[in-house]
Write a structure and sequence with these properties.
With about 350 residues, this protein is α+β, with helices and mostly antiparallel strands. The protein is about 60% helix and about 15% strand. It has a 5-stranded mixed beta sheet with strand order 2-4-5-7-6, covered by helices on one side. A two-stranded antiparallel sheet has the order 1-3.
Length: about 350
């Protein structure tokens, strides 16, 4: 964005350079050549001794201390006194400089009143500058507060995922250990890989899509070991997952939900998971068969996982995702998620 082109430390010096260059140039632009040197010395000295100090005094002390803390009435009263004081000093300085120049500038009777005019303009510009600077800083503070609230909310949402997920996986592990001890080693390795991901990777803002898919496949492999031939599980992954990044743990709650509600009392249970990666977006699709009795209850009891993901998508991918969840007439519960990669979306970081 344009406002980020100029680095912050250089904005104030650049502003002052442009302002005082114009302030000095305009009065000199119509001065005859024979008076130009002396006029330049006079104006430069007055700007340096009266205009610049008044500008700095107003922006860095008067406005922050009185306008923001005491109110506009006290601020403008003190500012008027400062203008009068600087005007008197301006008159004395001008008279002193002219009296010491072997000048070609015509001598006139200068009234202190005419010294006030440029100082009023300086005060108006400095007040406007201070006000814009104050608004900009307040906006930055509000953005930082909003960002802190966002990070706090995301941390809370992520903290909900781990206990919920661990609870589901441990139930599967207990079942496997009791029924098929020969698979204990394989299950333990898979679980350690899942736990390592959850502890060390899921806290990152963005992780490799390939890591997320590997994590998802480890979970599905555990479920395949548990259910064996009792549940038909189909998985299809297409596209390059190695070059894209994604917010961690966005897909796993939907897969968890499919195994939670797609087995048990369901006749001929079947779960399908598809992931397609294109240069611009990710298409994730998961569906599971459900019972014909009270299918709407499945959505109501989906738990914190899906609501969690919905909220995280709203926070992290606004206008860059599409999520649809529906129950079909032929007894399928379907989730479709299209996610536009942030490096392809039109966002200002």
């Amino acid at each position: 964005m344009i406002k980020n082109i100029i680095p912050t430390p250089y904005k104030t010096p650049l502003f002052h350079f442009i302002l005082w260059s114009i302030w000095l140039y305009l009065p000199l632009s119509s001065v005859p050549d024979e008076e130009l040197h002396d006029r330049f010395i006079l104006l430069f000295s007055l700007i340096l001794t009266t205009h610049v100090p008044l500008f700095i005094l107003n922006t860095h002390w008067l406005f922050p201390k009185f306008f923001r803390q005491k109110g506009s009435t006290i601020y403008f009263g003190i500012l008027v006194l400062c203008i009068i004081g600087f005007s008197c000093f301006h008159f004395i300085m001008k008279d002193w400089i002219l009296s010491h120049q072997t000048t070609l500038i015509p001598r006139r009777n200068y009234s202190p009143f005419w010294n006030i005019v440029p100082l009023v303009f300086v005060s108006a510009i400095s007040t406007g500058y201070a006000l814009l600077d104050y608004i900009s800083k307040e906006e930055q503070i509000n953005q930082e507060k909003q960002q802190e609230r966002l990070q706090s909310e995301l941390s809370f949402l992520r903290s909900q995922i781990s206990p919920h997920f661990i609870f589901n996986v441990l139930n599967s592990i207990v079942y496997l250990i009791r029924s098929k001890s020969d698979l204990a080693e394989t299950v333990t390795i898979k679980l350690s890989e899942l736990m390592r991901y959850m502890l060390y990777e899921s806290g990152h803002a963005q992780i490799s899509l390939q890591q997320e898919v590997t994590y998802l496949m480890n979970y599905i492999d555990l479920q395949k070991i548990r259910f064996e031939e009792d549940v038909k599980i189909n998985v299809a992954i297409t596209g390059d997952t190695s070059t894209k990044t994604i917010e961690p743990m966005l897909m796993i709650p939907f897969v968890e939900n499919a195994f939670k509600h797609g087995v048990g009392m369901v006749q001929n249970p079947e779960i399908e998971v598809k992931i397609h990666v294109s240069p611009s977006d990710l298409k994730f699709w998961v569906r599971n068969k459900i019972t014909s009795e009270m299918p709407s209850q499945k959505d109501q009891n989906a738990g914190i996982g899906q609501a969690n993901v919905r909220r995280r998508l709203e926070l992290l991918y606004p206008d860059a995702h599409q999520l649809t969840i529906k129950t079909t007439e032929n007894g399928w519960y379907e989730v479709n998620l299209t996610l536009q990669f942030l490096d392809s979306a039109n966002y200002a970081a």
